[in-house]
Every structure is written in C-alpha cells, then in structure tokens.
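Crash report, auto-generated. Payload:
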Amino acid sequence: MTICDDIKNKLERYIDGELSENERQAVNQHLATCPHCSREIDELKSIQSIGRMTLFPEPDTAYWYQLRENIRQRIQHKPRKVVQRLVQWQKAINWLVPSKLGYRLIGLTAAAVVAFFVIQHAFFQKGSLQESLPRYTKSINRPAADTSAFELAPSADTIEAQRLPETVEDEKKIVPPLDNMKRSTRLNNAESEHQALMESTALRPITHENLTKGDIKVFETEFSKAQVKPTLSKQMPPLFPQAGPTKNHPIEQDESTALNAMTISEVSSEKKKLHSAAKYNWFVDREQHLETTATKIELWKKYLQLEQELIYQQKAIHQLARLYFELAQQQRDRANILQALNFYREHAALLNAAPDSTQFRSSLIELEHMLQKTGKK
Amino acid sequence: MSEEREHKTDNEDLYWIQQSKQGNLRAFDQLVVKYQQRLYHVVRNIVLQHDDANDILQDTFVKAFKHLERFDEQLPFYPWLLRIALNTALNQQAKAKRMHLRMISLDQHPAIDSPDPDDAVQHLEQTELQEKITDALAALPVDQRMVFVLRTSEELSYQEISEQLDISLGTVMSRLSRARAKLKTLLKGYFANQNSGAGNDDL
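Recovered output after restart:
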C-alpha cells in the first residue's frame, strides 16, 4: 500500500509530463500491475480532457469585427480618460466639502486665481512687467545675427558685453506693442512687421466688424505655417484637366509622384493633418478652400486604393461622396458636377445602403438640379 | 502532448509591434486579429461568462497597446499578452466577487446560484455535458480554475504557469491538485456513467 500511496502522489505530475524519465518508467511499471492505480489514472485523464473540450460556442464573425472596432475606438479616444479623471476630482471635492457654501468658496477661489492670471498676463503683454525685469533678460532675446555688433568687445567678458549697449534692436523690444504697430511702417523687414501685427491682434478680441486687412494677413501667414496646405498639393497637377465626364478614374491620369509613393499610414496622417487644419477654416479664402477640398479628395482616393479592409473602403467611399458634393457646391463648374454625379451613380448601391443614405439622396437631387442650371447657361 | 513553444517573437509579429509602437493602429489591429480568438478561448474558460470575457479581452488589448514600450522584443508576444489578460481577469473577478458579496448582504439571500439572466440562454446553446462541466468549473475558485485551464487547455508546464502568474511551483501544484480533486467529486456521476459502460466500476 505504501508503494501505491507513493505512486498516487506522482500520478498528477505523471499525466502533466513533469516527472523525470526514471520516475515515469517506475509509474508505468506499477500501472501495468495495479488495477486500483490504473483506475485512478483513467479518472485523472478524463478530467484532463476537459481542457481540450469546447465548452462554449464560438462567437460569430460580427463579434470579432465589433471587438476590433471597440478596441480601436478605445485606443483612439483618450479624452474619455480626462472625463473620468474630472469625475474623480469632482468626487474628491464632494467628499471634502459637501455643503453648498463649499462649492461657492471653491468657485470664488478659482475665479480669483483666473482673474489674477488674466491681469498678470495683460500687464505682461503691455510691457510694464517686462520693464521691471533685469536688463539682461532682454538682451537674451536679441536675434543671433546682432551679436556681430559685439565682436569687438573683449571675448572673456561676453556676459558683460551682452548687458552693455542699447542697440536699436534692443530698443524695439522694450517699446509696448501698440507703439510697435506704428513703428512697423518704418521697418522694411517683413518678419518684424508680421511680429508687430501679431502682437497688436493679440490684444483685442477680433470680430467680423473690426477685422482689418492686417488681421487677415496675420491669419494667412499663421495658417500657412500650420500646414493647411500640405506640401504635396503644390506638386500636384490641376485636378480634372479635361472637362466633361470620364468613366475611368482620374487618378490614373494625373498620378503625381508624391502621392503615388505614399504608404497607407502616410496618407492617413496627411488626411488627419488636413482635417485638423480644416477646423480652423472659417477665415480661409475661397481659393484655398477649394484647394483643400481637392487635396482631400485626392488623399481619400489614394487611401481607397491602398485600403484592403472592406469596412474602411466603404467609409472612404462615403467620405468621397461628401467631398465631391462639397467641391461641386463650392465651384459650380460643369466638370465638377458631372464628376460628383458620376461618382454617385457608380457607387449608387453602396450609398443607398449607407446609414445616412437620405443625405446622399438629397445631395444627388441637388447635384442634378445644379447640372440643369449650368446647362441653361 | 505539449506542442513546441515559440521562444522568440516571430518576424511578422515583430514588424507589427514595431509599427504599433509608432502609433500605427492598423498594425496593432493585425495583432488583435491574430490573437483575439486564441485569447478569447482561454479567458472564456477562466471567467466562463461571455460578457466578462469580452470586457477582459478589450482591456487586455488596450493595455497592451499602451504599454507596448515595455514589451521585450526578444521574447514571444503571446505569453506577454496572456499575462496581461490573466492579471486583468483576476482583478475583474475579484471586483465581481466584492459586488456579489455586497448584493448578497443587501438582499439577505444566502446564495445566488445563477444571478445572470444570460445563463438561461447560454445553457440553451450548450449540451447537457458541456453544461455540467461548466457548472463544475464555476464551482472552483478562480485562481484554481485559472491554473487548471492553463495546464489542460493551454498546455503550459508548471514552470510556465508559475512565471505567468508569479506564484511558486508548489502553489501551482497544490492549486492544480485541489482543482482536480473538486472536479472529480463534482463530476463523479458523469464519469461513473461513462465507466459503467466498460463494466469495471466496483466502487
């Protein structure tokens, strides 16, 4: 019986394959002779087989799609976390001050803090705070090209040298920006003019009434800095060179090298850039707006070519339909309208099945209406 | 029995991982596609409910994406993923247990066998045998069930299980042993029925 007990202790490790070769052979020999232990091992084996059984029905394909989509959305939408954190903060505050008075106190404190910063910021902008600062902080701001003026000064004493002379550039920095505005007419340097404009616009709220030419200029330069026009739009040939509808994809005719060489991730990131830029689109002139829409179309078309997943292809087609309509609305050109109409007809089945198919249908009607109008002219 | 295990991330995985690290969601999607079914199978066997398994799977992949920087590219990807999933499952089950206890204390009910209305649906989809085994597995504490599933379904060695769960080899063996003992008693009738066909049941 002691042998049986010893073997029984090893049986689990035996079926798990965790015994040494010698031990395994000993168990094998014993099992051949002992019916009690072999019954034991049979039971263990049937329990072991549970692991290989399929206990649950496999989820269908729709589930896997949904899972992927959920994961993708959760990775992309980080703001949710911020909201959660805000809720946590609110809970913490609730716990600290449950009374209404507490809320008011917090509100007042917050308002006071904000007001303090606003006032401080305003004074800083007007230069009063700047003037009270030690002088060398100003000279640090001086452009690098100006250091040539100090080259004659003793090199060992550079810090002292930087503190020394009051050059014209230095003086400019100290004057409040409103004065700078007047002064800017005298400066031929375009960049400093731009700087002055920036500062002057920063001080007053801009509405449609007081929008000056200067403001628009600032916006435009800032806008081009923010890469509203992606670089590739410059290299692209004009869209749809021949008027009239063509059945084959225009992208095959005017493939630019820049667009062609792009990978799918690059196309996506370009798209994103364009999209985020478009949020600040309200002051862009018509030409630029047209160009942006056209670039978007090109990017989406390229994306459609590269994308292999059916779901995303469909989304791209929906997006393209919207963009074509937008372009046709912006520029009521016969070629553009026909282009849009052709696209709608080509993908009629898909657009009809779309969740917002009513929108597409009304766009289609409007497109046909537009075409009739241009035909009359 | 146990199939040969991968010791290194295969090249395909490595490519997708490196792409994902640069924020390429599409590349990460490929990893999800590759491992979602395998992972679902393990997790479902451990937590038993579909909704729980779904939550854990989502959390696992989201966490994996966030902490991809910490992944050692010299090692295979799946065990790393599995480790995240197991930790998530343990946390989730602990939370569920707390909730359950609170519910019981509120309702003054001694025990609730199947609080989930989905249970009925699930049981319709299962055969009698599957249902019986599921119930038996459900009767195990989650840590024992986890070790049992990793050993029998994933076919991990004791060493691998101890590494996955950060527990000692002795703990692995004792949990496994207790799980088997309990399953044996719970499924006694079923196994007796099976063996009675062979006619050597004299206990």
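Post-recovery validation: The two ends of chain A are 108 Å apart (CA to CA).
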